[in-house]
Amino acid sequence: MNGDHMVLGSSVTDEKAIILVIILLLLCLVAIAGNGFITAALGVEWVLQGTLLPCDKLLVSLGASRFCLQWVVMGKTIYVLLYPTAFPYNPVLQFLAFQWDFLNAATLWFSSWLSVFYCVKIATFTHPVFLWLKHKLSEWVPWMFFSSVGLSSFTTILFFIGNHRIYQNYLRNHLQPWNVTGNSIRSYCEKFYFFPLKMITWTMPTAVFFICMILLITSLGRHMEKALLTTSGFREPSVQAHVKALLALLSFAMLFISYFLSLVLSAAGIFPPLDFKFWVAESVIYLCAAVHPIILLFSNRRLRAVLERCRSSRCGTP
User: Per its UniProt record, what Pfam families does this chain match (predicted)?
Assistant: First the structure.
């Protein structure tokens, strides 16, 4: 099944697996708080001022998609714990999978477009095409948003069609969930329909993200080397700014790649469903969604200023 891989009859009995499930739910709560804060802070500013920087519009979109995704993950995890023998293609799980597929794809695309924006706006390449993109990219942010929603919707519909056809096949042929014939059809669809579709859906934004991050990190690395040659060392503010930017980008890239690889391994069925290794992979996937908002809060000046104002008002200081 698309989304998280589940098999009838599995149950969470391992104590270590139960601990990981609790950790996963806590990570979801942290991600909800972090992404909710980012979405609320920038969203309120957007409403009050009537406008927002193009980069911050992408951040709001990413934060909102992650915020909603974590609620879906929590709901799906709790449902699986309460009904471990539920048929993977029943209407409830189809509904949750539909939301998960859309929000997960949208999150990947928003992350990729954010890396494109960072790359074009921050990198110091002098190629004419690159300079032309610097002037045009801000105008394309609405198209980035609509393309992300459109592509995510299209692939989600394809996933839903596959899930629904498998479910209808069981109903039409009066098959039980544990029927060998039904399971063979299901395995065939997982292998030759769902898995290739997942790879296409996830690999395209990941490739865009990876290329942009390599270009941006290379550009910042060269710029930092030049700054070191013309200044007294790492204590210079300009060099420290470059180091902080590089660390933030490297952490973003590592979290994104970890998220993608964990998704692929989980989709490939390498880990036994609802087993300890399965929950390890799930925890890694959503650790990325929990950690990245925290990095953004401390690396983005606008968000950091909002956080400082919240702290000041809470402490009663002007």
Answer: TAS2R
